[in-house]
Amino acid sequence: MPQLNRSRSETRRERLSNPDNYPWLAERMRATVDVARYREAGLPNPVVAGRYLGDLAAELGAVSLSGGTIGDMVPPDFVRDAARDAVDSYPHYPGVGGYRDLRQAIAAKLERDNEILANPEEELLPAIGCQQVIDFTCRILIDPGDEVLVFDPEYASTEPAVHLSGGRVVPVPLHWNGRDWRFDIGALERRASARSKLLIISNPSNPTGIVYRRSELEAIAELARDHDFWVFADEEYEKTLFDGVDHTSIAALPGMKERTVTGFSFSKPYAMTPYRIGYVVGPAPFIDHFHSLLRFSVQACPAVAMRAAYATLTGEMGPWLEASTSNLQAKRDELVERLEALPGITCNRPQGVYFVFPDVRGLGLTSFELARHLLLHGQVAVAPGSSFGEVGEGHLRISFCPALETIREGMDRFEAALPG
Ligand SMILES: Cc1ncc(COP(=O)(O)O)c(C=O)c1O
């Protein structure tokens, strides 16, 4: 094991883990680092664990199989040129609502790809990535104490956004059938009630790779109408689909447009994570308040990113997307095969998103201990399943978006460092 200077990671973990260090901390912020259900289950708080493992990986110079950026493709020339040109051609503050041509291009894409009809002046806005859409949607819809249905496992930044709005997370377990992850409508039916204000769903689902079928979304939509709750659909990975599966937007289903907010992004589909640009579509009265929050917080999205986004929507992205998809699918298959060959691991083959979420309980460590062990003994970073919810415990999230050489190097280290 290398000689480590782990002072920063360990010091910060200690500081974050002890609420006494923050007597002045607002309750909502405190709720992000001290979630009772994790404490009671003996699992590390996801926010603290994520920060600690990230610090440790940086200190060790680890190979990362935990990230979420495509590592071997950049957007096409015409997209990057649009960003460069914007530096000279757009020298002023953009309007809060961004550029009209961008909003119109978004509306055309929503109609074409998502079957969502949206008025570009009233029902959609650009945003700083889908991340900002999650945050603003929670702030706009959730009152302190409101129940928010969140799948478990779910994208790790979702639950903190609910806590920051004072909401109460009601976890809805997804089902691991020993080979794959599945949506279980019964689990949702048992938890949905008149107290539910909002359901948050990532589709395709990070980290499980579930791509919800239309019939499953129809069942969810029926519950939303019966119990009168809102749906926030995080469709960040709408284009990251394998094996020929289709993606359906829940907002396109009958009676759903008026109770659904959908977040989209350029980050994952087009390798544009550094641009920080996405968009939201929802009912006009909701979008009015989204507009206010944009104004009060960041004023507007960056011009450079919006011009690149416009180029993406109006240019020919088809061949790039096809190349990216087949590249990701080949990397998925190689990663799944390598993991499946290891004793103590059963790996899913996700049809969406670019992560696998295998069962590693056979290795005998908790997911956090295992992720830490792999860092310390192999200098390879993966994400512990407990960072995505209690049901994620016993699994690891491993990315196949890095370049193939990085995946191979990471997996060589992973195998060499396995415990036992
Ligand atoms: C499911 C999901 N939603 C939203 C985001 C936020 O991404 P961005 O703000 O870059 O669009 C991510 C990023 O990893 C994600 O995985």
Task: Explain what you see.
This protein has 420 residues and is an alpha/beta fold. The protein has 2 domains: 7-72 and 320-417, Aspartate Aminotransferase, domain 1, CATH 3.90.1150.10; 77-314, Aspartate Aminotransferase, domain 2 (3-Layer(aba) Sandwich), CATH 3.40.640.10. 44% of the residues lie in helices and 13% in strands. The strands form 4 sheets. A 7-stranded mixed sheet has the order 2-10-9-8-7-3-4, with helices on both faces. Strands 11-14-13 form a 3-stranded antiparallel sheet. It has a two-stranded parallel ribbon with strand order 1-12. A hairpin with a 4-residue loop joins strand 5 (175-176) and strand 6. The site of pyridoxal-5'-phosphate has 13 residues, from helix 7.
CATH C-level of the largest domain: Alpha Beta
Counting copies of identical and different chains, the oligomeric state is single chain
CATH superfamily of the largest domain: Type I PLP-dependent aspartate aminotransferase-like (Major domain)
Q: Tell me the CATH architecture of the largest domain.
A: 3-Layer(aba) Sandwich
| Rg from alpha-carbon coordinates | 21 Å
Count every beta strand, where a strand is a DSSP E run of 2 or more residues.
14
Sheet with most strands: strand arrangement: 2-10-9-8-7-3-4
Bound heterogens, unique: pyridoxal-5'-phosphate
The helix-and-strand class reads alpha/beta
Shape: globular
Helix content: 40-55%
The name of the CATH topology of the largest domain is Aspartate Aminotransferase, domain 2
The residue-averaged pLDDT reads 96
| DSSP helical segment count | 15
| Order of helical and strand elements | HHHHEHHEHEHEEEHEHEEEHHHEHEEEH
Return the domain count.
Answer: 2
